[in-house]
Each structure stands twice: as C-alpha cells, then as structure tokens.
Amino acid sequence: MAVNEWINGYLEAILNSKSSNIEENKVNLRDRGDFNPTKYFVEEVVTGVDETDLHRTWIKVVATRNTRERSSRLENMCWRIWHLTRKKKQLEWEDFQRVAKRKFEREQGRIDVREDMSEDMSESEKGDIGDLGESPNKTYQHNVSSLETWSDDKKEKKLYIVLISLHGLVRGENMELGRDSDTGGQIKYVVELARALAKMPAVYRVDLFTRQVSSPEVDWSYGEPTEMLTAGSDDPDDDVGESSGAYIIRIPFGPRDKYLRKELLWHHIQEFVDGALAHILNMSTALGEQIGGGHPVWPYVIHGHYADAGDSAAILSGALNVPMVLTGHSLGRNKLEQLLKQGRQSKEDINSTYRIMRRIEAEELSLDAAELVITSTKQEIDEQWGLYDGFDVKLEKVLRARARQDVDCHGRFMPRMAVIPPGMDFSKVIQEANEADGDPSLTNTEGPSPKTVPPIWSEIMRFLTNPHKPMILALSRPDPKKNITTLLKAFGECQSLRELANLTLIMGNRDDIEEMSAGNACVLTTVLKLVDRYDLYGQVAFPKHHKQNDVPEIYRLAAKTKGVFINPALVEPFGLTLIEAAAHGLPMVATKNGGPVDIHRALNNGLLIDPHDQQGIANALLKLLSEKTLWQECQKSGWRNIHLFSWPEHCHTYLTRVASCRMRHPAWKTDTPADGMPKEESLNDSLRDVQDASLLLSIDGDKSYSINDSSDGGSDIQDQVNRVMSKMKKTQSSDKVGEMNSNNSNSSKYPVLRKRRKLIVIAVDCYDSKGEPEKTMISVIQETFNAIKVDTQLGKGVGVAISTAMPLSELVDFLKKGNIKVNEFDAVVCSSGSEVYYPGACEENDELYPDPDYASHVEYRWGSDGIKKTAWKLMNTPEDEDGKTGKALKVIEEDVKSSNSHCLSFLVKNVEKARKVDDLRQKFRMRGLRCHLMYCRNSTRMQVIPLLASRAQALRFFFVRWRLNVANMYVLLGETGDTDYEELIAGTHKTLILKGIVKTGSEELLRTSGSYYKEDIVPVESPRVDYLNSTKAEDIASALTRLSKCDT
Questions:
Q1: CB 286: neighbour CB atoms within 10 A?
Q2: What span, in angstroms and rounded, lies between the C-alpha atoms of 465 and 453?
Q3: Residue 251 per-residue DSSP state
Q4: In 701-743, at which residue ranges do the beta strands (DSSP E only) sit?
Q5: CA-to-CA distance for 967 and 645, rounded, in angstroms?
Q6: Are the C-beta atoms of 523 and 484 separated by less than 8 Å?
Q7: pLDDT value at position 732?
Q8: What's the CA gap between 225 and 86, in Å, rounded?
Q9: Which pLDDT tens digit goes with each residue over 94-130?
Q10: pLDDT by residue (tens digit) across 887-933?
C-alpha cells in the first residue's frame, strides 16, 4: 500500500507541474537550449512502452533490493503510467469525437431520406425515421410471418449453392482447428454447412470455395484442387447424379507456394474471383447437361463467409447477377472499437497491423450487394452491424414495409438480417448421452477392451493427481479475448473450488511457445506462471496437442466426471462450443456478452457470468458443481432443447430465408445465332485451356480431362488430340462464316466477340486539364493495332476493345480525328462501364445500340432519381470540421451530354471542394443508396453508375455472356487514371502499364486519410503486370507476348 500511495503522490506532482506541455515542447527542447533530461526521457523512451513492458518493469522493481535503484525504477514506472494514462485519454477523446460525428451523419442521413420520401410516406413511417435518438434498448425485430417455410417436398428443385471461405486451412477430415488464428470455428462451420445443405432433398450440388495452398509449410491435401465432402442427399428416392454432392473447390490465387494469413490476401481477391467465375461457368454448363435440360444451372445463391469472402461474393454475384448472402462471423468495426478502447495502439497502427480499414470496406461492399445477412445472435445485429454505414435498423424497417406494400423506395435498399444459429450433427452424441452414467472408471486400460479409454483421456489425466474429480473444461485458442487467465485466477484463488474440481484448458496445438504469435505466447506464458503462483500442479491440465476428432472425447470425459463447460470470453460472437458441450451432457457457465445469451435462452442449461468478475466466475462454477440436482436439471434441459441447433433445422431455416430473396440469374434478352451453336464449338481455342481445366476436375469426379493423361494408352491420347484439333478447325471455319453473316444480317452483330480467343482492352485515361482526350490516346490505339499486325501469333484470334469514361458519341468523334473507325473495335465500354457496345460487326455508318443484356444486368438496385438528388446536395453543401453544413456552393453541375440512363455525369467546377470517393460512398450508404461513384477525366467529371457496373465488371460480363475468359484478356493502362483505375489492375487478366503516357489522373480524390491502402487492392509485384517505357508497336507486341507466357 505504501508503494501505491507513493506512486499516486508522485503522479499528482507530475501532473501538477505542467508536464502536460511536453507534447508541445517536444520538438524544440534541444534547440532552445532548455534541455530537460526528464522530459527527454519521456519523449524518447516512455513513448515506446506499453502495459507488458510496464509489468516486466514492476517485476524487476519488486526484485530490487538496492533502495536507490528501486526508487529510480519506481520513478521510471511513474512516468510510464502517466504517459499511458495520457495516451488512453487522448484516444478516448478521439473516439468520442468520432462517435459523435458519426451519430450526426447518421441523423442527417435519416433527415434526407425522410425529405426525399415524404410525399408518399405514411405518418407511422415518418415517425420511424423521424425518431433520430438512438434507442439502445430497442432490439432488431424481423417479421417472419410472411415467409413460406421450406419444405422437403420441393424435390423438383435441383439447386446449385456456392459457399466461399477464403482464409485458413480448409479440408473435410482432420481439420487443424486452432493451428493459427485463421483456422478456427469458421472452418468447421462452413465444412459442416456444405455437407448439411448437400443432404437436403432440393439441393443437387454445393461447392465450398477456398484457397489452394501448395506449400511445404502445410499438408499436401490443401493443394488438391477438389475434395468431395459428401455424395449428396440421403433420400433413396433422390436422383443422385455424377456431379451431385458437396465439394471443396480450391482456387489458386496469390503465391501458390506460400500459406498467407488473411491480412495479406486482400490484393489477391480479384484473382480468386476470376478463377471462381471460370469454375462456376463450367459447372453451370455441366449441371445443365445433367439436370437442366441443356440450359445452364446457375447458382441459387452465393454465400460469403467473413469479410474477404464477402468482398469476393459481392463481385461474383454482380458478375453472374445471382443473389448474395453474407455471414460476417466476426466484424472489423467491432474489432476496431475494442482495440481502440484498449488504448495500446492508434488507429493508424491498428490499420497497419490488421488491414482493418480494408476489412471494413469489404464488409460495407458486402452489405451493398447482399440480399440477406445471416447472424448467429440478435446481439450481432444490434451492437455490431449497427456500427456500419450500410445498415440502419430504423431505415431497414421502413424500406422493408414499403417494399412489401409495393411502394417506391426511391432506389434505397437495406439488406435483410436473419438470426440463424449454426447447426450440429447430434446423431452420435445423443446416442452416447445415456452412457454418461456408466462405468465410472477412467483409468483402466487393461482387459479385453483397452479402447474404452481414448488416448486423449490419458493425455489429460497425466496432469491430474485425482482425475475422478469433476472437470471444469475450457476449450479455445490462447487468445487474450478468450479471458483464460481470469478463469485461472478465479480457480486458483478459490480454495473450495480447487478442492472440489480439476481445471482442463484445451488451448489449441503448440510445439514451442517461442514459435507462436506474440499474443498467444503471452497468454500461454501467463498461464504457466499462474499455475506456478497458485501451486496448481496436479489440478490443472493443459495438453500441447489434440486432434479435431479428440474434441468429442474430451467432452465425454468432462461429462463422465459430472463436470462443467465454461466460456469466459470477454465477448463471444456466438459460442459453438457451448452447443457441442450441451450435446455431450455438460452444463455451461458462459459470458453474458454476445451469443451465449441466446444459447442460454434456448437451452436453459447453465449460468451466465460477467467475464470481468473473478469472484462471480468462481461462485457460478461452485454452484453448478456442488448442487447435484441443479447440475442434472441443466444437463436434461440441454438435451431436451438441443434439436434447435441441429443441422437439418438450420438448413430448413436457411433455405426458407434464401427463398425469400429476390431470385435472379443471367437471362439474355437477345437470342443470337451463336447461342445455338454446338457445344464443342464454344470451347476455348487453346490446348492449354483444355489441359488446365482445374475448372472441370470436379464435374465428373474421377474422370480426367487432361490430354497428357497416359493411363489409357497412347492411341487414346492421339484420339483426344485429334478430336480437340478438329473442334478447333470447326471453330476457325465457323469464324469465317460468322463474319460473313455479320455483314449481311443485323441479327449476327454479337457473336464476333464470342469467337475471339484473346481480347486487348485499351483503358488509358489520358485527358488534359479540361477533361478532353489527348492525342496521345490516338497514338496508343494506332500502335496497339499495329502491334497485332507485327506479331502473327499475337494477332491470331485477337479482338480489341476500348474502355473509357467518355460517352459513345464523344468517343466516336475523337476517334475520327485520328482516322480510326469505331467498328475496328470488337467491344466498346463507355461511360465508366455503364454501357457496352459491339461495333465490330457493324458497318461504319450503322447506328450503334447498347447491349440490352448488359443494361438489364446492371439495373439491380439502381435508383437514379434519388442518387441524382443526393449527389447534388452532398457535393454542393459543404461541411465544416464539426460536420455542420454551411453556405451552398457550386462544386458540381449536371453534365447532360455525358449522362445516360445508367450513368449520372457531373462537371466538377471546384476540385478543391470536392469530396473524396470514400466519403461520398459512406454518406450514400447511410441513406440506403447503393451505387458506384468515381471521378474521371483528370478530375473534371464525377460519374455515378449502378452498383454492378464498372469497367472491370464489364470484362467479367464478356466472360459470362460470351465465354471469353478473363485470363485471356490484356488491359493497357497508364501509370494513373480515373478513380476506378485500381480495379483494372488486379485479377487473372494481364496488365500492361505504359509509362509516361498519363501525367495526371483522378486518384487523389479516391481515399481520405485513414482509409485503406492502395497495396490492399493492387499487388506490389505480380507476374501478370508488366511495365513499358515505349508505345512503339514492336515493344507493345513484345510485352504482350511476355505476359502471355506468365501462366505457363
């Protein structure tokens, strides 16, 4: 106590001595000749410490006997404590300001919505939106009465479902859960969900996409392109086809020989999207032949798990025009809030470590595209998703009611939220439930059946002096958030609990603590020290290894000893282990923060605790273990209600919710002759494309499509080669026929692009200060056409497209200045990707029309009237630093000439006052508006297009519509460009960046400070990206040839 009083007194003296001015004086201390050693110590030394350093110093202080040295170290500690306190106060103030500003912006968004929709809004709706005060006690309610419950009788439906889970190590058996922070409960959940969905009578096939990893760091199985999880429905009356069932599909993206943590995968996301798109297109065709009557069977839904997969699913669902579902698992904004409250790291440091802003933007993009968001608990909706720009509980309620009444929402949308707890397979554990009171012997391994004691039991019991005592079981990663150390302190300081029970801590797998991550190593080290401090040897078990199939046996052991399962996490998003434990007959003690509240309400099989209350944890454990009647009631209640968390129950609810989404899929309004061509003629035109069909590996299971497969003998190989060559010849001959027909019939305008083997896309954003295209662009176009003529191999089957922010009329006029005919291009992507034209099959003076299929494809969630009004108001109404509006300005004005039905174009009159793209995107989302914003033409235009439209997505549309693989496209760019420039670099296409062509672009208007990094979108180095200092035809041809070999 004396030491604490001394420290407090010293701190008061420091704070009263105007040391708070250190920050202001810090730069010029030496220069003024006013150098103070103590202040210098604070600046140079104390600013680099945190609580762990402080704890180590305190240990040294306690161990120091020399009075003078001890006093010096205590002074050191005082300075550290003062600095940490100041730092936390500063972060708390910044957090308060950020929350206040966000609340103001949310309220302003609701006011704008109310004004825009006031004409046809009922009084009750105005009240819902007009109530601007936050009501924390009001929880999210969802009306499910109108939903039609999914029935097993819907066997006529043959659904194809796509699940995506990118990070971690995913396989069907012997999952390495706990190996690292990326391979946890989410992996188990998605694998079991895929299996369970595939067994539903109406579901034909489920594909679970993940990353292919062929690295010596991990098992070889993670490098296998496909893995079957189950053969399909268990119903004997169901028609089980050759491609039915559940499969893990591993798509290569990023470096194939490295296993990367999730924070390093962001700039490879578009690679995954293109690879997954290729697989889905081939699979849809194959399923169409099996069960679709020759018509493609498109995915019923694409379901992304976690932020990275949500980002991927959003792009994929946009490319395919199919519904998207999202499950967050854990959310970036919530993690950011928790880390900021700890006060150890600034927002910049957190972003640098966790790429947290890129993760948050991915979650916001997922909310833009998702029809449905599945959560495990209501708490996740109220306290976590409510932090996001793209979801507002009150606005969602109003928009959902208006949509149900078929009332115009003025282009506004909020995704639906559904609470669906994860499922479990209880068939085996329920059968074992009656055996829990069987033979009490735990250690007898002799006799005719030594297998009665599983190996993991022996591994645990070797730690325990009396293994027959009731077991308190905790199972989690050694993560600080899991609060294991508080549990251990509660156990160590409660003598009654120590005498009554043993404590078993299953903390993942480890070989050497020194090789673990800093956070995990710190927790394990603290556990070992606490065991020693409280002398818990013989009472606490903490085995180093366990397998996934050992986990049920661990639960069984705890149940046999009449034990208890505990989850003391600070916050638990769901708590799947609580359900697993209940299924094995274990009552629970769990945190009151998060998902366990809903689980406890359903199962009523234990007690909830405050994870910060050490004494409360001990009391709850003691109560359950000592009161046998209560223990038995909790066990029986858990078994009685556990069916609520079964996989069949989960899948029924899941399919019911998905069926309520707005179903959509690619549907072409135009019926071209190429659509009816024989299937063999629509194959890719290179042998390598046939050979590299990892896309086809999962179609027929064990069948091989490789022309190099020698298992059937040389004659069969030759036959295969001959067949492929004949198909290629047919395609070449049909190309000529198609080109002839295109000159004679307007109905054949589209097939030309489809028959191309490669496509060169010129997307150079070269504009002067007025936004007019520069002559350099003409030179690039001419040299690109010349490059095709120079290299005969390159020119074979190659088409050329141009992608620009200009409208078609302006582009045509510009091309005429360089004597370039627009019909020399196979495709033209105009107005930043809002329109697509195919002039290649038209005569020079023919009138061009935008592709109606593309127009209907990007129409989704496009509300031009509401967006135009909001864009005008946001851009021309400035805000001060406090977020308050000022006098109206004229920052933008409408550019009618460049606008069309899917592109709102504005002239930027004052670039300095223009808002950044991510700032505008945030405010649009708060108002329920979903769209794609960008600045273009050297920051002289702002264009707003539909959410599903972009220059990058137009290339994927060509893939879906005309089967021109994105991997066979070559995109020519400058060193900078419009704000959508970054989207055009990453992916499986090849990118050639021409240096010195584009001097200034619009990228400075893309991100505000504190946003995600460019490196999170664009890979720093990629074999698919090449740079060129020349625009000569020969050099361009040479560079394109180099790029064509990067995948070989």
A1: 22
A2: 17
A3: E
A4: none
A5: 43
A6: yes
A7: 43
A8: 53
A9: 778 878 888 888 888 888 888 877 766 555 555 555 5
A10: 678 899 999 999 999 999 999 999 999 999 999 999 999 999 999 99
Q: Measured between alpha carbons, how far is residue 549 from residues 103, 172, 455, 598 in Å?
A: 48, 12, 11, 27
> How far is the C-alpha of 227 from the C-alpha of 238, rounded, in Å?
22
Tens digit of pLDDT for each residue in 736-761? Answer: 333 433 333 444 445 588 888 999 99
3 state SS of 569: coil
Instruction: Decide: 249 and 312 in contact? Cβ < 8 Å.
Output: no
Contact (Cβ atoms closer than 8 angstroms) between residue 838 and residue 752: yes
Structure tokens of 972?
A: 């020519």
pLDDT higher than 90, residue 490? yes
- CA nearest to 260, candidates 349, 355, 190, 340: 355
Q: Are 348 and 1011 in contact (CB under 8 A)?
A: no
The H or E element spanning position 122 is none
pLDDT digits (tens, 9 = 90+) for 765-799: 999 999 999 999 999 999 999 999 887 777 678 99
Residue 293, class by beta-carbon neighbours within 10 Å (0-12 exposed, 13-18 middle, 19+ buried)? exposed
Query: What CA–CA distance (Å, rounded) separates 915 from 747?
Result: 45
Q: CA–CA separation, 590 vs 606, rounded Å?
A: 8
**pLDDT at residue 260, as a whole number:** 94
Q: What is d(CA 767, CA 773) in angstroms, rounded to the nearest whole number?
A: 4
Residue-level pLDDT at 35:
47
Strand order in the sheet with 540-541: 540-541, 502-506, 471-475, 564-567, 588-591, 606-609
Is the pLDDT confidence value at 473 over 90? yes
Beta carbons within 8 Å of 699's beta carbon, 6+ residues apart: 242, 243, 282, 283, 286
Q: State the residue for tokens 């969630």.
A: 861
Look at residue 585 and tell me whether its pLDDT is greater than 80: yes
Structure tokens at 259: 């296993």
| CA 491 – CA 502 distance, rounded (Å) | 9
Q: What is the pLDDT of residue 363?
A: 97
Question: What are the phi and psi torsion angles at 632 (to 5°)?
Answer: -70, -40
Of residues 50 and 873, more confidently modeled: 873
DSSP state of 380: I
CA atoms within 13 A on the CB side of 83: 24
Residue 895 and residue 909: Cα distance in Å, rounded? Answer: 11
Question: For 531, left (φ over 0), alpha (ψ -120 to 50), or beta?
Answer: alpha
In whole angstroms, give the CA distance from residue 837 to residue 752. Answer: 12
Instruction: Could you list the beta-strand ranges (E) of 827-940.
Output: 827-830, 835-837, 892-894, 904-908, 931-936
Work out the angle between the directed axes of helices 356-369 and 332-342 (0-180°, nearest 10): 150
Q: Where are the beta strands (DSSP E) in 820-922?
A: 827-830, 835-837, 892-894, 904-908
Helix ranges (H only) for 627-713 are 628-641, 647-659, 687-691
**Helical packing angle, 67-116 and 917-926, nearest 10°:** 60
On whether the CB atoms of residues 1009 and 976 are closer than 8 A, the answer is no
Q: What does pLDDT average to over the chain?
A: 81
| Count of residues making up the chain | 1048
Three-class SS of residue 1046? coil
What amino acid is encoded at 368 in this protein? D
Query: What residues pair up with 936 in beta bridges, in sequence order?
Result: 941
Which residues neighbour 143 within 8 Å (Cβ) at sequence distance 6 or greater? 400
For helices 864-876 and 67-116, angle between their N-to-C axes, nearest 10 degrees: 130
* 995: CB partners within 8 A, 6+ apart: 975, 1027, 1028, 1029
Residue 828, sorted as left (phi over 0), alpha (psi -120 to 50) or beta, turns out to be beta
Whether residue 38 is predicted with pLDDT greater than 80 in this model: the reply is no
Contact predicate 311/328, CB 8 Å: no
Q: What angle do CA 99, 101, 103 make, to 5 degrees?
A: 70
Assign 514 to helix, strand or coil.
Answer: helix
Contact 168, 208 (CB under 8 A): no
Cβ neighbours, 10 Å, residue 575: 26
